[in-house]
């Protein structure tokens, strides 16, 4: 996290503050220690349990002609970012090619702009619209004057007299078969040469466990990934647990945090001799958000505003100082307006069949026609078509009540509900209620679940 996510997106001060919350709990730490052998340095010390959170530290390379000859100016993106973060690297050539279309490529190109790259280009094989990078990361790169050249497949590094001059690319276009599978097909146009003083390769990231011996009872599959139980995070060695990117490959910070939590529950069980699967259920609850007939404890007004743009610091400042945070955050007024866009997905519409007198008032008042009282159908697909507004989004479940007094059912298409609460305001019998959903993740002990 510290070595790869650039400071202009995640300032060190913020990271320090967050990490210190944990360190201040009194955890014993050994920083600046590379573990070379799990057997000699960890398992031999007879710890009761071991958690491996070593990330996915290996950048994928690109073995095409010229790779070895130009090696001095060809860098693996994540290693290069780490080298910048640890201040071993402070500059880069003026002309830089970044290969890859994911978020790491976006971090590489934007970092290169801050280290002296004046003509930084991202070159990617896939069409622009299919790049893995998040749309906002692509927008931020464009804002920093970094062009993205799509549909170009790297062919070779061009090196003259031992000096990297640039790269050759083959132009392609995407074709799709009946199943929608993509194929990149050469366009037949002449290959393209792009000049470069340095190239950053950001075409993927992998796990790597050279420090874990293979005779420790920890099973590795054919991709050299440990076999890890998805629920308990235990490996085939009952003492050793995995989480974060090291368990199932690169994901994101919040997933790593969630893994750490679940593994901690397992480790607690293991140390106490409790079966690992014997975990407390998460605490789930619903509370009525009613404060009166027309009042809710949340803002139920639906706003049609688009997402507000997060203000950024002046480009002159951010491009000249790689540690200067780019996103300034909302001012209080815009923050307030942005919060008003919240659809209150945590406030659920809860229907109680026994209270419903089938007056159909909720169906009339619903602004998105998502409530229908109807005869039931044999097949869900038929029922979806019987609704006031057919429920076309099959990835979203429809809610079907039990049979009501008139033998009809109440069907709600969750896909279009605005959580406005009008159905519950209108209902004369409180058969509809707006209820706030609470979730308290599984802890090791019931005491932690009490409010
Ligand atoms: C360029 C880039 C940008 C990213 N941006 C985001 C983002 O904006 N938001 C987001 O949520 N995620 C982002 N991610 C993903 C995120 O960084 C990871 O998913 C997350 O950090 C994984 O956490 P982890 O604890 O599993 O591993 P890491 O954070 O990678 O931590 C692993 C730690 O283990 C140490 N280690 C490894 N091997 C050994 C060893 N043998 N001995 C001792 N120590 C060892 C490493 O030095 C490191 O400190 C980004 C990733 C990259 C590469
Ligand atoms: S909350 Fe609003 S949108 Fe959702 S069912 Fe009720 S009236 Fe319709
Ligand atoms: S408004 Fe209330 S009572 Fe009338 S149909 Fe809807 S849920 Fe039933």
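Sequence proposed for the structure above (451 residues):
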């Amino acid at each position: 996290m510290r070595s790869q996510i650039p400071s202009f997106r995640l300032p060190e001060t913020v990271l320090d503050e967050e990490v210190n919350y944990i360190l201040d709990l009194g955890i014993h730490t050994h920083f600046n220690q590379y573990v070379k052998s799990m057997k000699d340095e960890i398992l031999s010390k007879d710890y009761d349990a071991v958690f491996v959170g070593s990330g996915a530290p290996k950048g994928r390379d690109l073995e095409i002609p010229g790779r070895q000859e130009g090696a001095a100016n060809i860098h693996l993106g994540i290693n290069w970012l780490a080298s910048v973060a640890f201040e071993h690297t402070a500059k880069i050539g003026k002309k830089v090619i970044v290969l890859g279309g994911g978020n790491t490529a976006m971090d590489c190109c934007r970092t290169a702009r801050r280290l002296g790259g004046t003509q930084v280009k991202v070159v990617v094989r896939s069409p622009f619209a299919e790049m893995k990078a998040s749309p906002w990361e692509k927008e931020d790169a464009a804002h920093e004057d970094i062009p993205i050249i799509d549909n170009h497949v790297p062919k070779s590094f061009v090196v003259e007299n031992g000096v990297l001059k640039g790269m050759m690319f083959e132009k392609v276009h995407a074709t799709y078969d009946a199943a929608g599978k993509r194929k990149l097909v050469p366009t037949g146009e002449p290959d393209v040469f792009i000049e470069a003083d340095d190239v950053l390769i950001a075409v993927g990231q992998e796990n790597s466990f050279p420090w874990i011996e293979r005779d420790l009872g920890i099973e590795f599959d054919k991709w050299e990934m440990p076999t890890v139980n998805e629920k308990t995070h235990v490996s085939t060695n009952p003492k050793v647990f995995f989480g974060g990117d090291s368990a199932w490959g690169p994901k994101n910070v919040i997933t790593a945090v969630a893994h750490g939590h679940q593994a901690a529950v397992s480790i607690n069980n293991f140390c106490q001799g409790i079966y690992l699967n014997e975990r407390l259920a998460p605490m789930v609850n619903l509370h009525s958000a009613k404060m009166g007939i027309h009042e809710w404890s949340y803002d139920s007004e639906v706003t049609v505003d688009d997402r507000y743009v997060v203000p950024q610091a002046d480009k002159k400042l951010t491009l000249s100082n790689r540690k200067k945070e780019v996103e300034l955050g909302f001012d209080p007024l815009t923050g307030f307006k942005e919060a008003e866009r919240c659809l209150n997905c945590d406030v659920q519409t809860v229907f109680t069949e026994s209270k419903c007198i089938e007056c159909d008032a909720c169906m009339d008042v619903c602004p998105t026609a998502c409530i229908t009282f109807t005869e039931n159908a044999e097949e869900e697909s038929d029922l979806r078509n019987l609704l006031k507004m057919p429920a076309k989004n099959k990835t979203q479940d429809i809610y079907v009540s039990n049979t009501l007094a008139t033998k009809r059912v109440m069907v709600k298409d969750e896909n279009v509900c605005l959580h406005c609460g009008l159905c519950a305001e209108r209902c004369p019998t409180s058969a509809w209620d707006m209820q706030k959903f609470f979730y308290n993740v599984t802890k090791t002990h019931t005491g932690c679940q009490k409010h």
